[in-house]
Design a protein that fits this description.
PDZ_sf, SH3 type barrels, 33% helix, Rossmann fold, binds adenosine-5'-triphosphate, 6-stranded antiparallel β-sheet, MAGUK p55 scaffold protein 4, Pdz3 Domain, alpha+beta, L27_dom, 3 domains
């Protein structure tokens, strides 16, 4: 509005009125007002001349909130000095960036702590309100951390409250088999820091390292009074349940029945199955995992269903394939039995000679195989792999075949079909038929439901950590929908899979 204002001045005036300039202006004035503020504590001025032997100290002031401080302390028994033992990743102390493992604490809120018991120091910290002031002598040589993030699936349960050897139970983090953990700090060879995913807390917790957890498992193992081998027990129990069923006409029935006495390539006998399963668990309590998303051009992931006998694994599998046989397919098994008049090789079964079958077994060609009434039955890995190049292959497996499908090539997505409560089983299975020993299907009885529950409990306690998804087969329609969603997720959404599938090692 100034008279005789130049065109440049007008342009500048217009520019300064633009919204983004106004916002930056507001930002600058906010910055200025923050910069002018005085923050507490007000530190004494630095003395003019510092004596040469004066140790460099640091005043660290933390504002207490509902979160724990996120640091542990220890005492040097010889000198009575108190040190920061570890700083918990993501905790208050860590986020301040001012306290580090190895810092020597001289004072807490003005109280000298030298010579105090760690518990007394903790009491001083606990009593303080609002802010806590630490005077520390910083550690001179801080270890350089170039940690890479590591994700693992827990293959064992852990409870810090039941572990007398944990340095600080409150800082510990419990986990259950199957939980995915983000290892954020492996500096300490014995105690790692980790977060459970999906993470609700920024603060990590202490967990035993692989070696320490292995040691604990071994100690636990040896400290147990002698019992018959757990795995052999399970196998026997499963066989006892499975023995109820025999061959009856119908969809792949004999293959399923023979499987109950089956072997899978990674577990050629019960005894070696125990060696791989139990000692395998002892050998690696954590399985390294990575996020994997199948690309549209990749082969499909194998969908493997399993559950206690009678729960409806086969019903769900059949219904899924029926929904769209152009997308879903099951493998046709191999058998040495003679074809029946109405059967055609390559339709119900691939009929083959015993010699050929044995040869396939010898060359590890089967995902699982077994004998039933003197005939051999088996699911060929090649058949499954071939289907996966075109369609989503859906198989139902017994637990002893889990390891055989968890491979780089098949990348199985394992869905556990769980029975609903006893009451719901009674209500939903009123018209259902159980396959029994005598070539007949009969209505379910309460004992069948009880057997199903017992078998489910055993399967869950041994294999839960290997399940990618759990579907409770209550309403059949609802379970089918859940199955469809799970299958879509497995193929199209990122999932945690063993790192070895993505970076194959030379190990078998
Ligand atoms: N959610 C459900 N509601 C009602 N009936 C069901 C349900 N799921 C399965 N069934 C019925 O239960 C019976 C047993 O199911 P299915 O044969 O699929 O069991 P399975 O888990 O494959 O066990 P097995 O291997 O011993 O045959 C079948 O008659 C099936 O139709």
């Amino acid at each position: 509005s100034l008279p005789g204002c130049s065109s440049e001045a007008k342009e500048l005036h217009n520019l300064l009125r633009q919204p983004h300039i106004q916002v930056s202006d507001a930002l600058l004035s906010a910055h200025d007002s923050v910069a002018q503020k005085d923050y507490e504590p007000v530190l004494p001025p630095m003395p003019e001349e510092l004596p040469d032997d004066e140790e460099a100290t640091r005043i660290v002031c933390l504002v207490k909130n509902k979160q724990p401080l996120g640091a542990t302390i220890k005492r040097n028994e010889a000198t009575g000095e108190i040190f920061v033992a570890r700083v918990i990743h993501g905790g208050l102390a860590d986020r301040s960036g001012l306290l580090h493992a190895g810092d020597r604490i001289i004072e807490v809120n003005g109280f000298p702590v030298n010579g105090l018991e760690p518990e007394q120091v903790i009491q001083v910290v606990a009593k303080s309100q609002g802010t806590i002031m630490f005077k520390v002598v910083p550690i001179t040589e801080r270890p350089v951390h170039n940690q890479t993030m590591l994700y693992v699936r827990a293959m064992a349960d852990y409870s810090p409250q039941q572990d007398p050897s944990i340095p600080c139970a409150d800082a510990g983090m419990g986990f259950k088999k199957g939980d995915v953990l983000e290892i954020v700090d492996q500096t300490d060879a014995l105690w790692w820091q980790a977060r459970k995913l999906p993470s609700i807390s920024a603060c990590a917790g202490l967990i035993p390292s692989t070696n320490l957890l292995k040691r604990k498992q071994r100690e636990f193992w040896w400290s147990q009074p002698y019992q018959p081998h757990g795995c052999i027990q399970t196998q026997e129990d499963l066989i006892a349940i499975d023995d109820k069923c025999v061959e009856a006409a119908g969809f792949r029935r004999s293959m399923r029945l023979c499987r109950r006495r089956s072997h899978s390539i990674s577990q050629p006998s019960c005894h070696s199955r125990c060696a791989t399963t139990c000692h395998g668990t002892l050998a690696s309590p954590y399985e390294e995992v990575v996020r994997y998303q199948r690309l549209p051009q990749d082969t499909y992931r194998l969908i493997a269903l399993l559950g206690p006998s009678g729960v409806g694994v086969n019903e769900l599998r059949r219904r899924l394939i029926d929904i769209n046989p152009g997308i879903f397919q099951g493998p046709i098994p191999y058998t040495t039995r003679a074809p029946k008049s109405y059967e055609e090789s390559g339709r119900e079964y691939h009929f083959t000679s015993r010699e050929m079958f044995d040869n396939m077994v010898y060359n590890n060609k089967f995902l699982e195989y077994g004998e039933y009434k003197g005939n051999m039955y088996g699911t060929s890995i090649e058949t499954v792999k071939e289907i996966l190049t075109r369609k989503i292959c859906v198989v139902d497996i017994e637990p002893n075949a889990i390891q055989a499908v968890r491979t780089h090539e098949l990348k199985a997505y394992i869905i556990y079909v769980k029975p609903p409560s006893m009451d719901r089983l009674r209500q939903t299975r009123q018209d259902a038929q159980i396959t029994t020993n005598y070539y007949i299907n009969r209505p379910f009885k309460d004992e069948d439901f009880q057997d199903m529950e017992d078998a489910a409990r055993k399967m869950e306690s041994h294999y839960w950590h290997l399940f990618d998804n759990v579907i409770v087969n209550d309403s059949l329609q609802e379970a089918c929908l859940q199955l469809l969603t799970a299958v879509r997720r497995a193929q199209d959404e990122p999932q945690w899979v063993p790192a070895s599938w993505i970076r194959p090692t030379n190990q078998p």
